[in-house]
Task: structure prediction
Amino acid sequence: MKQQHSNIGRLGWMPKTLTQVVAVACLLGAATPLLAEPLAMPAQSVLSEMMSRQQQMQAELNELRDLVERQGYELEMLKRSNKEAYMDTDQRIRALDAIVRPTAGAGSVPTEVTPVPTTPAVVPTSPPPPVVVAPPAQTVSADDQAKYDQGLKLLRAGQYQPAIKMFDQVIKANPASPNRPNALYWTGEAYVVLGDLKSALNAFEQVVQGSPAHQKAADAQLKMGYIYYDQKNYARARETLNKVKTQFPGTQAATLADQRLKRMQSEGV
Amino acid sequence: MPRLFIALLLIFATLPAHAALQIDITQGTDGTMPIAVVPFGGGAPEDIAQIVSADLARSGQFNTLAPSAMPEQPIDPQQVNLDAWRTVKRDYLVVGRVVRPDAVNFALEFYVLDVISGQQLTAMSVSASRADLRMGAHRVADIVYEAITGVKGAFATRIAYITETGQPPMRRYSLEVADSDGYNPQSILESKEPIMSPAWSRDGRKLAYVSFESRRSSIYVQDVYSGRRELVASFPSINGSPSWAPGGNKLALTLSKDGNPEIYVLDVATRQTTRLTNSAAIDTEASWLPDGSGVVFTSDRGGRPQTYQVGVGGGAPKRLTFDGGYNARPSVSPDGQFLATVQSCGGGFCIAVLDLKTGASRTLSKGSQDEAPSFAPNSAMLLYASGGGVLRVASVLGQANSTLSLQKGKVRDPAWGPFRQ
Result:
């Protein structure tokens, strides 16, 4: 048997397909009188069994491929519809908020629904968008609002520089604009994504200093804490995060600040 | 064949005797732009306005007006009474005339007017010889179409298809080239053996096709104008489904020279082949992506034929179709937005179009034996072969569906040529 195999090997002709294997088997069966048992018959039945098994496996493989492809596709569709549902809900909340807010008193700010980003490293494509704040005493000009909305749209589309420019127009146009703190806040977020932490700090600082009572002030302060942490300026980070806790107790920003302080403690910084 | 004549009935009553085709337009006119193409003044051997009008109607984006329903028939913008056209609810108006600068040539002078604003959208003159007169009229239609929709018109283009006539042993196959409306058909190859899958080169000069003239499949490339032809692929076993690459002298095709039908790219100049797919299943019917980055093709690797996409560098194919248990003969629109396939529907096959951006899918035909969808170069219309072997044109954006019905034989495998250069 060994002899036969090495001979075939030397001939440089190795069986490649099943048909060739059958051919080799027949050849072996016919040309090897030395073999104690006839090889051809059992080998052939084994081979035909193998072939039908192989065909079966191929069919099953095809079915499984179909299933995997379909599931991948369904997953993708699900992701998409999920995102759409989110955007839809988001728009409804904004619309509702715009109705609720003008009737609310100035003192009610802390009880408002405040969209605080839930993850530390916020990418502005996914966080809830800012609520358009329209205190009763001030009105938003149509142009102002359009620019602010445009800025948000650009931000969502990942066009950070153009978004910053658009927000800048809102900021510069009217220092009393109710959109100003929001525009500044999102400018800060955009700079974080762009990696310009200095400009981000500057923008957040303006929110905290310029509108300390604004709902965005807590978030801005929190983000400043995060930036200091990223810059390994742990002392300032601790100080800033503690301010969030004491100045805005009960807010989500305060909870997040507390979490980060605990993490810093566990990291020993 | 059931026919639903609309306003075109009158027009076709006056068809010239040499016309080989009839055109029926079925289905709705919702969302279409109302236009009137007034019969051209001056006189010509072809009814220019009728050709323009039929082109616009076939796009599915316009509804046209029969001359008998027109309040007036001006040939100059100064003669137009806009109020009269507003009364018959027309948004756009085309007026013009045929002038003879010399004994040989014709000049088609025309104006496109916006009836609502009263503005003139365009004023042009298209010149054509007697033999070119119909093509000249199609050019007018292209300009009108573009002036109103902002999208380049694709009427002054040509189509190729295969006809089959007679019964064995007298059966004959013919590769024909005609205008986009089916007129002026010319046979460029005749054979007793089947001819299949014509494919236009991007410059519109050459057709690649499969011929069984040597009793087995081979792929030829033929110059449409000179008739000169060249055998480019005759590998053992299958040689099928050629498709020209957008850039360069390359064909994607199906070969089974290595055992199993797979997609290859053939460099026509060097005759070198590169294999793109590798699967135990049947991979066939490759069609290039418009940017040349890869091909879409049919494969039954998932058990049933579906459309996949693979890059020119090979790699793992990506499945594109999930609607319906069968999606074969894929074709991507030149703008890259749509994928047309032959889809199983209601026990038969119809043409389906998938919007690759939104994932939305719709069927453009009712079936039941539709095949071989081919996009117009402006992506707005789709040509396909229908059940009884007739050619049909469907609007990708609108609802219209027209028949280009030849009077003889069965028509198969249509291919819409590129914009004329």
About this structure: Residues 56 and 226 of chain B are 32 Å apart (CA to CA).
